[in-house]
Amino acid sequence: MPQDCDVIVIGSGAGGATFAYACAKAGKSVLLLERGRDYRLPAPVHDERAMLVDKRPYDDRQFVVNGFPKRLYMGGVLGGGTALFGAALLRPSREDFHPGKHYGRRIPRPIWDWPITYDDLEPHYNLAEMLWGVAGSLDDDLAPLQQPKGGFPKMPLPVHPINQKLVSASRARGLRPFRLPLAIDPLDCLRCGACAGYVCPTGARSSSTQLIARGVADGLPLRVRTNVEVESLVLNGTGRAKGVRILDRTTGNRTVQSARYYVLGAGSLGSPLLLLRSGPAGPLVGRHFMMHLSPIVAAIFPSPTRADDTFVKQIGFADYYFGAKEFPHKMGIVQSLPVPGPLMMARMAPLMPRPVLPFLRRRLLPLAGIVEDLPDAANRIEWGPDGRPRLHHRFSPYDLERGSKLSRLMARILKSAGASLCVSKRFPSDEHVAHQCGTLRFGKDPAHAVLDPDCRMFKHPNVFVVDGSFFPTSLGVGPALTIIANALRVASIVTAEI
């Protein structure tokens, strides 16, 4: 079969687009295939109904989640999840790459250590932060998280007054709050109250969409097709991929295109689903699905916080990353959240009288925890007999216990800053699948992993994976920066072979 390009990349999220850009930058011809369309903002740009209720920029597939049909809050446009994410790009702790130190017998011995170390990824973290324009403060103490030795590429936004109050009160208690490293350009940011979950109206929030546009504008050998679905890989008798079957979702036409290498970046749900549809898959494909447990504590202050109409997702805490004195178990980070919009607020408090909601919104300040959920083979994505994807996921009692403990600590933080009342929610709805990872994990032994340490499939030597599927454990921070850094690492491996 004649080859159409050097590399075909499937999916334009954080991993797929970064890999495609790096590969094209190295002079290799790349075809990037994206199931979603090139989304254009509606008017008004902060249309909560269009974005979060009708889910126009989100994936249009229906998943059966624990037996119930759902449309997930999962990016479904060019740029994938990065078109809608909260832009927090944090490095994990060095110890996150050795999870056996903290979890021991709670996880299988073969994943006590990642097959690569933090040092292997450090140069790629540096490049990732430059490429995505991460803004942060080197003056802050993020320990035990790692941070760039030479500082962040950009300076952060000024801290909102309610966050200044939160920081001062927390430091008085001996905590070490820090400004979240955000891929947001402070010069172009409108400081919208509506940010995460919305398409950015100015492009101040970095995304894969911008990275792709930059590559095309610079004349790199990068071709992009949107609104096309890769239905399966075409495999030869030895397991090598020799093509991809593509459905044009606009015309209904089906074609096959080929390359020397194939790179999956369709996400921790999309990539294993593609492999499961391509022929016999190994027993680990689609298993060990993880997404952080995210307990939320919303504080109500006696006077308006002004957090409802401007950008407040600025502050993080890593003080409880490896536990607290009264609970010495790894819990992860805490970070501030935007106040929900009026429509989402009404959904969250359906029994609350409608006239009361605006009063509460003006006095709210939420915090969220990011608790590392442990891998479980029963948590998986698969195709159902009706042809619909089925997601099975339950948090373990240990995950839930850590989330409950972290909620109490978050409430203390907020009350020390003057909150009158704190309301806890164990985790968002089951339509939220933020920070998904783990379904095609990498490792040194094919008996316990789908990918080798280079993120090459053991069964298919010219197929690589660059989305969050490769994670053996979920880390205690959001996965986006690690996905980007790993995509750059894998791109250097692939381009050296072509």
Description:
The chain folds into two domains: 1-134 and 196-292 and 378-393 and 433-498, FAD/NAD(P)-binding domain; 136-181 and 295-370 and 395-429, Cholesterol Oxidase, domain 2 (2-Layer Sandwich). The chain is globular. Helix 1 (14-25) links the parallel strand 1 (5-10) and strand 2. 24% of the residues lie in helices and 17% in strands. It is of the alpha/beta class. It has helices at residues 14-25, 48-53, 100-103, 118-132, 161-172, 208-217, 267-276, 342-348, 356-361, 397-416, 480-497, and strands at residues 5-10, 30-34, 63-65, 68-70, 178-179, 222-226, 228-235, 241-248, 254-257, 259-264, 296-300, 315-317, 333-336, 364-370, 380-383, 389-392, 421-425, 463-465. It has a six-stranded antiparallel β-sheet with strand order 5-12-13-14-11-17, with helices on one face. Strands 6-2-1-10-18 form a five-stranded parallel β-sheet, covered by helices on one side.
